[in-house]
Design goal:
The chain is of the alpha/beta class. It has two domains: 49 residues; 217 residues, Rossmann fold, CATH 3.40.50. It is 43% helix and 19% strand. The chain contains eight helices and seven strands. It has a seven-stranded mixed sheet with strand order 3-2-1-4-5-7-6. It is globular.
Length: 269
């Protein structure tokens, strides 16, 4: 075999090898696309299941049923000693994912709205709270520019994806007056990487920065951004005396040690 033949054979071998690599890559991409499609379908299907009011009712009754009284007492302290400073007596406030009304029952303001899909929520809400039962990512039954504050605690992580989150904060933006506030609190995935997944209905992983970025990209100006605020969860945890909770709120240095939830406050531009 002369030099030219060896060259041509070598080039043929290289082309065959490249063709095989491309074919393998295409198959891999096809498999990856299939995996991604299956994953998206699974997440969407799971997300849809958590729009089932009956399932929500069962989850929260089992998770929080024995804690309702204690949670109400804790939130009365949290509202009076911390969150009330962001709400005026004349404000209209919407509690997004209001649950059993732990926040909205205790805040002092002129108009109160609780939004949730849990059919048990109205049983716990006070008579001055208007209840809206609906998916938060769909248009709210609230007029444009009619709210002063939208509050959300430990709720956004339950949304099925970031599109649902974007639609939700867009609805909040529509309903808030210019300069109105959204107050968002939730588990910081940087602080609770493993135990975050102990809850069956957790989907979105957020940090104080990703929450702030989502708001900044959707018509808000962030005015407070804390990576660590409250401890992670009351579920399966000790029931601390309310005096300890009051003391904790006065000691921001303790937040840096025990805080596992972010706190982000933003104003509608």
């Amino acid at each position: 075999m002369n030099g030219r033949e060896r060259f041509l054979n070598g080039r043929r071998a290289i082309c065959l090898t490249m063709a095989e690599l491309i074919s393998h890559a295409m198959k891999s991409l096809g498999s990856m696309a299939l995996i991604q499609a299956v994953f998206r379908h699974s997440v969407m299907a799971m997300g849809e299941s958590f729009k089932d009011p009956k399932e929500l009712e069962n989850i929260y009754r089992k998770r929080f049923g024995a804690l309702v009284e204690y949670r109400m007492d804790v939130w009365e302290v949290l509202v009076k000693k911390f969150f009330q400073q962001y709400v005026r007596p004349t404000d209209a406030v919407l509690d997004l994912g209001c649950g059993y009304g732990e926040f909205i029952n205790h805040i002092s303001c002129e108009r109160k709205i609780g939004l949730d899909l849990n059919p048990e929520s109205p049983k716990y809400l006070k008579s001055d709270v208007q209840f809206i039962a609906q998916d938060c990512s769909e248009p709210w039954g609230v007029p444009d520019s009619s709210l002063d504050v939208v509050f959300s605690s430990n709720f956004f992580e339950h949304l099925p994806d970031k599109l649902a989150l974007r639609k939700t904060i867009a609805e909040a933006h529509r309903c808030l007056k210019p300069g109105g506030k959204i107050i968002a609190m939730g588990p910081n995935i940087k602080c609770v990487p493993g135990s975050y997944w102990d809850f069956w209905d957790h989907f979105l992983c957020l940090t104080e920065r990703s929450m702030s970025e989502a708001l900044e990209n959707n018509g808000y100006r962030v005015v407070v951004e804390r990576a660590r605020f409250l401890p992670y969860s009351m579920v399966n945890g000790p029931r601390y005396p309310l005096a300890i909770i009051r003391a904790y709120l006065k000691l921001p240095i303790a937040w840096r040690i025990f805080g596992k939830q972010f706190l982000v406050i933003a104003e509608r531009i």
